[in-house]
Design a protein that fits this description.
The structure is a single chain. By secondary structure, the chain is α+β, with helices and mostly antiparallel strands. It has one domain (33-181): tt1808, chain A (Alpha-Beta Complex). The protein has five helices and 13 strands. The protein has a six-stranded mixed β-sheet with strand order 3-6-7-8-9-10, with helices on both faces. A hairpin with a 2-residue loop joins strand 4 (67-70) and strand 5 (73-75).
């Protein structure tokens, strides 16, 4: 016997606290994979990395902030780069959404998230896979592509800005943090 998920209203979703927060897609509350150290380390790394551009570019890095991608669709990107706002839920397309894979994440599910971001007008999404040491990017077309080589090294960029980061820098920081934790 298959079980049918219980559907809830947007209003109920918005007034309920989930720990950790969950996505809401067309009446269904969907848990997100998280809680693994590589995920947390990279999330922290990106918040620190983008903080140095905050004043110059007039945006703020937000971890696990609700993003309304449609009438009945809310996603919680691992990190988003958005214009400062007093809104409790981001409803304006952010400049960038970043997803960091956990060991149980599947690319098909991540692609659905990226599709939602693109439909709402997010111009750029990054997907970081700490397990396979790969990085992917998608533009407004939502087509995920493994990061190619620019100027000799794989580079993640945000179109329309001077912001870029070498993929190897991301994984070197992950290695550094892991080494610092060893006794």
């Amino acid at each position: 016997m298959s079980s049918t998920p219980t559907l809830i209203s947007v209003e109920e979703y918005l007034r309920t606290s989930y720990r950790p927060d969950c996505d809401y897609i067309d009446g269904k509350v969907l848990a997100r994979n998280m809680g693994e150290k590589p995920h947390a380390r990279l999330q922290s790394f990106f918040i620190k990395f983008f903080a140095k551009y905050e004043v110059e570019h007039g945006f703020e890095p937000l971890p696990e902030q609700r993003l309304q991608t449609g009438d009945k669709r809310y996603r919680i990107p691992d990190v988003m780069i958005a214009e400062p706002s007093e809104e409790l839920i981001v409803r304006t397309p952010p400049l960038l959404c970043i997803e960091i894979l956990c060991s149980k994440d599947r690319m098909r599910e991540i692609q659905e998230r990226v599709d939602d971001y693109a439909r709402m007008g997010v111009p750029c999404s990054w997907v970081i896979d700490p397990w396979r040491r790969k990085a992917f990017t998608a533009g407004p077309d939502a087509i995920l592509q493994e990061v190619g080589t620019q100027m000799g090294r794989p580079l993640l960029t945000i179109p329309g800005t001077n912001i870029s980061i070498e993929v190897e820098t991301i994984f070197a920081e992950l290695d550094r943090l892991a080494a610092a934790q060893r006794p």
